[in-house]
User: Which sequence fits this backbone?
């Protein structure tokens, strides 16, 4: 499980990449924050997060990616970076509809 401390640097990243939540709230959901950073973050955001969670943290975010955050390009890129080939399908939302 990834834990993100409320450092000034991480709070700044959270404010930028999860703009619709308070930074402390964004840090409390690390997989969601990492997925947003991997899709919308700058290289500086990624470097800041990597210093805390390392490659394994980003890999965990991919393995448990919340649906609806990654776009196809970011999903393909990060899966390639982490050696997940062939790229698995993008996570999809489950609205609880039975078939």
Assistant:
């Amino acid at each position: 499980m990834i834990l993100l401390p409320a450092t000034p640097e991480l709070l700044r990243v959270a404010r930028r990449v999860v703009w619709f939540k308070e930074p402390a709230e964004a840090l409390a959901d690390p997989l969601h924050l990492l997925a947003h950073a991997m899709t919308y973050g700058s290289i500086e955001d990624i470097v800041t997060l990597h210093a805390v969670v390392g490659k394994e943290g980003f890999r965990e975010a991919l393995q448990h990616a919340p649906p609806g955050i990654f776009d196809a390009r970011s999903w393909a890129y990060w899966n390639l970076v982490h050696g997940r080939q062939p790229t698995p399908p993008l996570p999809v939302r489950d609205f609880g509809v039975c078939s």
Q: What stands out?
A: The chain has a mean pLDDT of 94. The radius of gyration is 14 Å.
